[in-house]
């Protein structure tokens, strides 16, 4: 696999994980300090979106690895 492509995919996977972490903290603080359930639900919706984004990136990484393995086993 092209090293630059691998680095990009790993970077793309880290971004949503960072967003998930930040939004989880925000959701926790929102509930602890304000008890604002609607605002917390909006934050958790963002977290779920970032989880989907991360899953898509990991699927792309999986496909890239499978492609590379097929190239390696081709005659």
Automatic annotation (TrEMBL):
The keyword Transferase applies. The keyword Transferase applies. Keywords: Kinase, Transferase. GO terms for molecular function: kinase activity. This is Histidine kinase.
